[in-house]
């Protein structure tokens, strides 16, 4: 029997990331090749944005996706989020050259109080929320706090792009395929302070740390390359990453819904107090997923260097949280 369609809301649907994301969702890349979807697309109530959204929807129509069971355009989150199973909160201002992600805090924070409240009011009680719009961790925190009637665990932030960037750097360094790398993770904030950690990673059962055996490369090349990759792309393209961000969003939700079969991935999730990260902080953790639930990998040894790095990214998040205190009550 055919599966019932899942309702997926995407905000900022006429933006750069939206343009790389919607077609792949409708093609079954995110929820599975046997899972029909209904797209509920939100853009700002602005004539130009709504017109651009209509244009994107015309193109989606023209793909005649067999899994697309419906599609609607919205300018109000209260209708866009009605009964949704998945929310991809992309719509927010991106940073330009010379800006840091926290510079976006003021500009974007308000969006996530409004959208958190709308999710609280009208989304499925099991809605899975992924915040992509920057600063993603703090925006996810704001949305979570603005939706007190939804389980906090439903709110996540995207660190998968950082995870994928780290995978690709390690593949290049070791000369091994990306698919052979396991047990990699990225701790903390989606910002240059994030801590990409390959101490536990393996390739064909062998320790990646031993294979690389170069602490200076880790500190001086790997961590800055992964941490500053978003900025490097803005510098090169004049625009922030879009197709790779959309790809990471697809990976994140795919794995959350369909499971990782015991493999590690990274998700920004509300801390349960693990690794001394204060409860409720939206933090990148190593997780596995099964039956639509994620689980933090527990019991990992945190050495002095790692604790320092984790504290730096945690402190930045706590500062960001302080900056939006007035919005979350
Ligand atoms: N977490 C990550 O890894 C990651 C990666 C790349 C980009 N981003 C972030 O994703 C966001 C979107 O990037 P983009 O390149 O698609 O930007 P963009 O400017 O091309 O598109 C953003 C779209 O969002 C819309 N929008 C703004 N406010 C909205 C609201 N309240 N409701 C609905 N739609 C709204 C805008 O009209 C625009 O069409 C940015 O904040 C960017 O920094 C995050
Ligand atoms: O860095 C940015 O501002 C965009 C995005 O978060 C990225 O990591 O590419």
TrEMBL record:
Residue ranges constituting the Lactate/malate dehydrogenase C-terminal domain according to the UniProt record: 160-326
SUPFAM superfamilies (alphabetical): LDH C-terminal domain-like (SSF56327), NAD(P)-binding Rossmann-fold domains (SSF51735)
Uppermost EC category: oxidoreductase
Active site: 190
Alphabetical keyword list: NAD, Oxidoreductase, Tricarboxylic acid cycle
Reactions listed under catalytic activity: (S)-malate + NAD(+) = oxaloacetate + NADH + H(+)
Domain Lactate/malate dehydrogenase N-terminal: 6-155
Binding site residues for substrate: 95, 101, 134, 165
A Pfam match: Ldh_1_C
Enzyme Commission numbers on file: 1.1.1.37
Binding site for NAD(+): 12-18, 108, 115, 132-134
Functional note: Catalyzes the reversible oxidation of malate to oxaloacetate.
Family matches, as PANTHER family: MALATE DEHYDROGENASE (PTHR23382)
Family of the protein in this entry: Belongs to the LDH/MDH superfamily. MDH type 2 family.
Protein name: Malate dehydrogenase
Native organism: Actimicrobium antarcticum
Chain's gene name: mdh
């Amino acid at each position: 029997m055919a599966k019932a369609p899942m309702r997926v809301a995407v905000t900022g649907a006429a933006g750069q990331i939206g343009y790389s994301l919607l077609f792949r969702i409708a093609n079954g890349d995110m929820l599975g090749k046997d899972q029909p979807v209904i797209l509920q697309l939100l853009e700002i109530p602005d004539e130009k944005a709504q017109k651009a959204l209509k244009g994107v929807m015309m193109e989606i129509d023209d793909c005649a996706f067999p899994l697309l069971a419906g599609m609607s355009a919205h300018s109000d989150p209260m209708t866009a989020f009605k009964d949704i199973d998945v929310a991809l909160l992309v719509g927010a201002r991106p940073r330009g050259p010379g800006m840091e992600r926290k510079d976006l805090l003021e500009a974007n924070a308000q969006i996530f109080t409004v959208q958190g409240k709308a999710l609280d009011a009208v989304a499925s009680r099991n809605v899975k929320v992924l915040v992509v719009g920057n600063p993603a961790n703090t925006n996810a925190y704001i949305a979570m706090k603005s939706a007190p009637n939804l389980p906090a665990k439903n709110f996540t932030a995207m660190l998968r792009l950082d995870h994928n960037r780290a995978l690709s750097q390690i593949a290049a360094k070791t000369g091994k395929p990306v698919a052979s790398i396991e047990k990699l993770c990225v701790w903390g904030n989606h910002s240059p302070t994030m801590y990409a950690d390959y101490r536990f990673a393996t390739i064909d059962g062998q320790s990646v740390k031993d294979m690389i055996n170069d602490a200076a490369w880790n500190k001086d090349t790997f961590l800055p390359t992964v941490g500053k990759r978003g900025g490097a792309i803005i510098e090169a393209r004049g625009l922030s990453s879009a197709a790779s961000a959309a790809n990471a969003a697809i990976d994140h939700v795919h794995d959350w819904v369909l499971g990782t079969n015991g493999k590690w991935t990274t998700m920004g999730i509300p801390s349960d107090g693990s690794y001394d990260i204060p409860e409720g902080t939206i933090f990148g953790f190593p997780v596995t997923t099964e039956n639509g639930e994620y689980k933090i990998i527990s019991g990992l040894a945190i050495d002095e260097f790692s604790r320092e790095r984790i504290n730096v990214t945690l402190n930045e998040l706590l500062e960001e949280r302080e900056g939006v205190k007035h919005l979350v009550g």
